[in-house]
Amino acid sequence: MSLSFHRRFTASRCPGCLWRKSPLAMRGVLLLNAIFLATFLAAGNAAATDVAAAVRAAEQERIEAIARASQAAVAIFAGEAGGGSGVLVSADGYALTNFHVVQPAGVAMKCGLSDGKLYDAVLVGLDPTGDVALIKLVGRDDFPFAELADSDLVEVGDFCFAAGNPFLLATDFRPSISAGIVSGTRRYQFPAGTILEYADCLQVDAAINPGNSGGGLFDAEGRVIGVNGRASFEKRGRVNVGVGYAISSNQLRQFLGCLKGGRLVDHATLGATVASADDGRVVVSDILESSDAYRRGLRYDDEVVSMAGRPVRTVNALKNILGTLPAGWRVPLVYRRSGRRQEILVRLAALHTSGELAKIVAGGAEPEAPPDGPPGNPDPDPQRRGRPGDPAPHGAGKKPEVVLPPALVGLYEPRNGFTNFHFNTLERDRVGRQMAARQPLPAGDAIWVMSGRLEKGQPFRIELSDRRATIDLPTGTSSIDATGELDATPAPPGSGGLLAALVLWRRLLREGAASLGRTTYWGTVPHWSAAAAGNGSESTAAPGTPGGARLVDVLETAASSVEGRFLVADDGFILGVDLWPTPDADPCEVRFSPGSGWPETMEVRHGDEVFDRFRIERIDVEAPAGDGQDDGAEGPADGGTT
Length: 642
Description:
The protein is α+β, with helices and mostly antiparallel strands and about 650 residues long. The chain is built from ten helices and 32 strands.
């Protein structure tokens, strides 16, 4: 660059020169700089103001969520046996807690709420394997409660907090709050020598101390994402080390129907074991020929792809899935054999015998009492014995003699196989009222005549009365004596007992659940559409249920030498009947689709085969022969005109 060019450049570009040559231009530059600086500072102040407002709003939301959750938190006191925590999940007083919390208390306990009041509570249902118990507080019908969230949506890093009664400190019944984040999801905790199995649970770093057991774990909106149960502690001082475990809300939801029925609930087993193959596949390593999975076609060395709508990529993944399901449920299972994918519906068996569960509940075997550690461990500090939150002394887990306070008299009924049969009767009668309200029926021995066409267009006719049941099909006519034992002949051939199932269906509608043999409330199960296995239900689904199916009530009956189950919708419509002429055989499965009154269609399955699909065009209710009068209406099944 030449010296002359440099002089010309600096003379024209130097701010001092520019000021000398054009003072007005320079003042304009300074003004623009000032405007820019002011704008930048204003924007920064506005952003800071927005951030501060957002922080205050978030703080307020958190305060309100904790306040709501605190109202639903329950402080459980079991007298000299200690206590723990719980969480209210309905306005009529049902509360979830841990099995190991209520076991020392027996049937009755005292519960405090954040309003400072003490309430009596009675034991309703138990799930010893899952360490879950359901109790019911009495004294009002407008209890504050927390909503069960969808725990499948919980992610690592989500904010969470626990509300409970650690070390039984809540002498004023106001819960202690500890906050943290979700550290892990779908954790599996081995039984460790007991039957208590924590499957698919949430791991959190919120402080879970002795006494927090059974209390709610909440999300940022104050909804229940789990019930606290286990935690890890520094051995000598039992100091929380930031690793706690909560039973997921979706698992709780799946057992809640059975628990509300006063049942002693067991967890599920597939009837098969799996192992990891060299290539990483999860394959069947052993299978019982008596299992439903075997009858549906699962065999040794088949690859398990998914179960209950969830992928199975490890052995623990299958353990996690099975650990969240009640025994007796049917769930979709997908397996692969020689590259070919198969989908089946599998009925899950019980993990334990009823005798094993009853022995544990009665105190014959002491389960682990998390988070206090396994019973029988030496006390590292003998001076601490008897302090709040310490494990109950040896033998305290045994059931005391049942002495009910006045507020609970009439709310407990012992019966083999049940925790509290009183609540089973309540649930059975509730479902019975729903059925009666939906379909008022004529009195007397009216004959029901169903007619229409099969899937291929051929006509059919079914006649049901108190005395006989008859079906006319293109393949012939079948008939059974409705007054005798229904297990004699599973007619028509190939159906597995369709006529017997329809006889029980008619009796249930006419006589009610209380009069039909030995009928009890079973709980809730997923209702699958009548389409292919594993596709779920066409109706409203409960969060976390397998395949997105909806949960429906189930009544179980033993009558006329057969066993049956009735699937009942919320509006009282009977969605299906499962009938077992013999306990170890495949049931006859009948599924109805609702019309405006009577069923509109009926699908009948036996084993893996569809017996037929019936389009019900007309149902006539006729007087019996010789009566001379019509006991009811006649017309098409959908309530329209013929």
